[in-house]
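Running this now, will post back.
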Amino acid sequence: MALDGELGIIYTPEVREAIKDEALAESSAKNDAILSTLRDEMLAKGPEGAPDQEALKVVQLRTHAGTRRQLIVRDFLTDWKDDAETEGTKRLRENLVRQTVPLADLMLNEVTGSAIAEWQRQLRKSSFISGEPLSTGSVRMMTRMLNSAFEVAVKRDLIEVNPCSQIEKGRKGTGVSKPMPTDVMSVNQVHDLIARLRSSSAALGVMAEVASKTGLRIGELAGLRIGSLNTVTQELSITEQAAGGRTAAWKPLKSSTSKRRLKVIDSAFKALTGYIAQYRGGEPLTAPLFVTEGGSQYNASHAGKKLRDLNVGHTWHDFRHFYASQLIAAGADLPSVSKALGHASTSVTLDVYVHLLPGAEDRVHSAIASAFGEEVSDGESKNSPEGESDSG
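Update: finished.
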């Protein structure tokens, strides 16, 4: 909101002080009328003194909104972003504005602690920009920025209470999204989702099929080149990820352990070779494997937006969780799962997926029973014949 350029206001120091005293006072119906009057007075003043941006912004927002209920989160955060003193701060605030999709159309005084907690949960599952899960640290940073914005709203008397003060502060953790068993897609759900995406776009359909059968991160998937597929060994080489931008570009993987080769199953190999033959034939091996309808390289942000626009109810990372859960359910050992996923260490894999390990509780129970020479049968530990007392 370019207040000076838009309103052309120059007013005296006396009026400036009056604005501060009145505009920052406790809100009331009477105060709304005072603010409106002061704004009219400012417009009538001569060229003495310099405008006070903060006081003027309070009057502008309160007069424009009329009441607290007429100002929505998106408008307030956009104005707050434009107040940034440096370009770096402005970019950070712009990023926050883009990440607050679920809150954007709420009135400022409608935002609750529970709404912010739900927003945090959604970010941990899928960024509204890239489609990738955000780490705990990133969500914590976003929340701190949102808290600062709402503190400004409280100061300007646009809301009475900062809703961020009503949520439980997150604890330090690994920052990795942890799927619950009920969140993991079934095989039928994956098939249905692949078919739905294929009907929308050939590239999206093949990307979904490959994602579910390799567990690639969306950045890795979008960063594949035509030459990443070895048609002799039936392997994919994951060596880089899509960088994003208007032109095809790549950047390093998330970690050194993310660099890997994966042998793809026949159905995924057939889908890849068929797609290349029909849509990417004649292109150099260094060209992006997956491109949009306009011929641009997919990136994490664009691919994530495609899923949201189609309202499929899942993210690209859900395919990765599905892949991992299938490996675990089939009894694959932890180091192999970790290597396939490109995790930095097996401890990351264990932290994310330990609760999906089949029969984990039973194995723990059996292990301690075995250590003490007890038998385990049908969930019951026994160290003596049935009916015989321990003290007998």
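The chain has a mean pLDDT of 78. More later if anyone needs it.
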